[in-house]
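Onboarding guide, step 5: your first structure request.
Type a short instruction followed by the sequence, for example:

Predict the 3D structure of this protein.
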Amino acid sequence: VVWPCAWPARRLEEFTHADIVQRGGTVGTPMITSVLFREGHPFAVLPLDVDPAEPGATVAAEIAAAGVATQVRRSRIARLGEVLPGYESLLISDERLETGLGASVVRLQESDFASACEAVPASEITTRVDALRNRAGIDCDEESLRVATRSTVALEALVESHSLTAGTLNCHCAGIRYSPSVAHAPCLALGES
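The system replies with structure tokens like these:
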């Protein structure tokens, strides 16, 4: 965020060339933004009429937007399973995510999820089922809850091991919902993650 704010007036003989660059919106701003542009860094320039005594909301909003943009550029987005038939219009290509947003796309296989499910220890499932029952009113049989909870822990493990910040999961694909090792649609895992 570049803000060519108005600085208090100074006597001309005390105003150096360095002051022109550092405190002069018409000189310093183009110099700084030129470098940012050439190096491919996105930036926003705030208007001169923002009150330097109380920049508050205007500056905070721009800084927040810059922070969000940085998070998006650093994000790692997982794709697990192919798009469901009928949802193709919602698909954004990997190239667009990577070149347009600067995000990294991590392609995971259905077998990665199945393997993560198989690796969840029974003791972890028991601990998580107990915590879930204490937190919410659950009306399903114990085995179904254990299977669903195992998927939650498996998805969390994939998120952690691949440093993921977002993702898509088609849980109705053959390697997940219809595989012998998973054998259900992991809706609880998606809701919990």
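Each response can be followed by summary notes, for example: The CA atoms of residues 89 and 131 lie 39 Å apart.
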